[in-house]
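Data availability (excerpt). The following record was deposited with the supplementary files.
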Amino acid sequence: MAELSQRAQQAMTDVELLQGEEVARVWEADGFFLGTHPLLKLMGKIQSMVVTLTGGHIRVFLVVTNMRVLLVQSTQMWCGCQKVRGANAISMTSVKEAGIGRETQMCCFHSRVIHIQTLTQRHTLIVKGFSDEDMKSFLAYMSWVLVSNARTV
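Predicted structure:
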């Protein structure tokens, strides 16, 4: 069972795990991503700093359990004057594709992306603090989910 960070636990306050459900993996995305260009990344960092200084946050998590995929989001602005929390539950059998990507700008500015494609929607997340090994781990785990789905059909 995967350990949830304190930020992930706070974001998941509205989500109840089902009986027998265990969290397998958790990935945190960058809620301030504006683009891969270094100037856009700098603007995102400035935006993040301003929001943090005013008591806010934007947190997005992709949580995979043994029964479903959860997309959990928490946004807070101005010391809690505005709060939004939401979660989407996605059936494991609905996941039809998973992918990873890495873009490098000016030789040293890296952005890493993960995505999952369901029957109805594509979810693309820019991930924070991901190494190439983390991306390989994500793809391997989601590939296991896809192979399991194919065997049960």
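Summary of structural features: The mean pLDDT is 87.
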